[in-house]
Amino acid sequence: MSAFMSRQDIDFLLYDWLDVTSLTERERYTEHSRETFDGLLDLSADMAAKLYAPHNKKSDQNEPTVGPDGTVVLIDEIGEAVRAFGDAGLVAASFDEELGGMQLPHTLARAAMVHFQAANAATSSYSFLSTGNANLLATYGTPEQIETWVKPILAGRFTGTMCLSEPQAGSSLADITTKAEPIDDPAYPGSYRITGTKMWISAGDHEIAENIVHLVLAKAPGGGPGVKGISLFIVPKVLPDGTRNDVALVGLNHKMGNRGTTNTLLNFGDGSFGVGEHSGAVGFLVGQEHHGLKYMFNMMNEARIGVGFLATALGYAGYLQSVEYAKVRTQGRPVDAKDPNSSPVPIIEHADVKRMLLAQKSYVEGALALGLYAARLLDEELTAPEEADRTRAHTLLEVLTPIVKSWPSQWCLEANSLAIQVHGGYGYTKEFDVEQFYRDNRLNPIHEGAHGIHGLDLLGRKMIMDSGAGMAVFAETVGATVARAKQAGGNAAEYGQALEARLTRLTEVTAAVWAPGDPALALANATVYLEAAGHIVLSWIWLEQLLAVGDTQSDFADGKRAAARYFFTFELPKVDPQLDLVGALDRTTLDASPDWF
């Protein structure tokens, strides 16, 4: 076990539960084996420990600045780590071999990446965004665009970003004002000129790569109002002929945490760098005009799952450090101790400390299992032999994505808070890592869609899509686990019955809120619905892990059983009042007047 991730847990999830080695029987993964999978995990753990973890605190204490020449200044270790990650081929881990990739299962690529996210959240984000950028272009780009932009990203020479939000339009992308005008420019055939401002662009400017490939949402002529008018453009920092594109850094945002990742305000086409006789930044259309948001969802959904993993990784790192601390920190005596002269005991002996550790364990190990399950669904969607299985995996992944993003962002942040509490006063100081983990993790309930937006997505779209197909597939999947649990007997059967009752209630409430035909009323408590559904999902994931442990006798297996018991005893019952509130169509928030605040 490293200081930030448990290899034993990852092996259990990948091999004992998700059976990833069975994927090597499929054509896409035939070149791989348990040995290559283990090699990837070993490499990732080693690189994360040697190149990422050592400068995690340093990058937090020395956040990016703008130098006298207008360029971004980072500590050297960030660039060294990002370049080593690219040189090792890890940006391209899951990509096609013809693009320079390793053609690894997505489940393994995510398991590898979580080591880097746990070791250094900020530095890992440069490569995390680059992979998502390249994935989008590999899916929707032309062969020329793939050759020009994707291959250098996968080789680690370029990095990539996603440019959605604007100062006046965060998640409300219908309100963006960045414009794209088609220009007859012989120097850049078929190009557009992009003008506008983008905000909150992670990794938006730096000097650690040869180029930065921005994917920019903008409105081209003739698209009409709202999101239907949005198109997607490749707007590189440096054009293919070596000319500096008109993409200007306006400033850096100074964040509470995740400080090592540059976060920028960028101007496109403000004249800072003139490109030819036309004004504006040169952009190249991806796909068709006015279909940009559909394309961008490819990267957004990948990023949402990545954010869930990032939140999980930070929670996991804090949990492991609090366990280590609780085992060596002596304080107090058992409540039934009679002799005041007896020696203090390690705080892990106290029931309330064990409560906090069990809570963390149930959150972070549950979140990691959920994330890897989602990655396994993506592998099924791409490679399952039967079309019906691919369709089913796609639908279930659609349903789970808002939970994969938002549940770890909420509850692994709570794990970080509990890790500080376990450390006591020391946890609130910068001398211990858990203080930084909490600050780094606090971003995750905000970015890639704020917490409440994913509630709207889950209840307003995913559960009711295709005449309720999303809810049906989810209920069927959880129901199959419940049936296995009942057959297994013992605690598994007991937990299965408790889960089944809440699943039935969730199904009833989902139908009830839409029955009046009032979307505003139905979605007024969507966030509460998201949180209740998330706890039901994690209960299912814990039941799956319990069944995978079986009758194994070991401290690891007993730990899994204890965490499952904790979750079903302390956490699952929380959903009952939540579902009651949602099902009652409570109007408290809907009826509150802005004048009352």
Sequence-ordered SSE layout with sheet pairings:
Elements: H1 7-17, H2 34-52, H3 56-61, E1 65-66, E2 72-73, H4 76-87, H5 106-119, H6 121-140, H7 143-154, E3 158-163, E4 179-182, E5 191-202, E6 211-219, E7 230-236, E8 247-252, E9 263-268, E10 281-285, H8 292-328, H9 351-383, H10 387-423, H11 433-441, H12 451-462, H13 465-488, H14 490-514, H15 519-522, H16 526-549, H17 555-571, H18 575-583, H19 588-591
Quick synopsis:
This protein is of the alpha+beta class. Helix content is 55%, strand content 10%. The strands form two sheets. Strands 3, 4, 5, 6, 7, 8, 9 and 10 form an eight-stranded mixed beta sheet that branches.
Key descriptive features of the protein:
Butyryl-Coa Dehydrogenase, subunit A, domain 1; Butyryl-CoA Dehydrogenase, subunit A, domain 2; Four Helix Bundle (Hemerythrin (Met), subunit A); 10% strand; alpha+beta; single chain; 3 domains; 597 residues
Count the helices. How many?
A: 19
What's the domain count? 3
What structural class should be given to the helix and strand makeup? alpha+beta
Could you say what the CATH architecture of the largest domain is?
Orthogonal Bundle
Fraction of residues in helices?
55-70%
Name of the CATH homologous superfamily of the largest domain: Acyl-CoA dehydrogenase/oxidase, N-terminal domain
Query: Which regions are unreliable across 5 or more consecutive residues at pLDDT < 50?
Result: none
Name of the CATH class of the largest domain: Mainly Alpha
Count of β-strands: 10
Average of the residue pLDDT scores = 96
Shape: globular
Q: Report the sheet with the most strands, covering strand number, pairing sense and barrel closure.
A: 8 strands, mixed
> Could you name the CATH topology of the largest domain?
Butyryl-Coa Dehydrogenase, subunit A, domain 1
Distance between the termini: 50 Å
- What value does the Rg take, in angstroms? 25 Å
The sequence of SSEs as H and E is: HHHEEHHHHEEEEEEEEHHHHHHHHHHHH
In what range is the share of β-strand residues? 5-15%
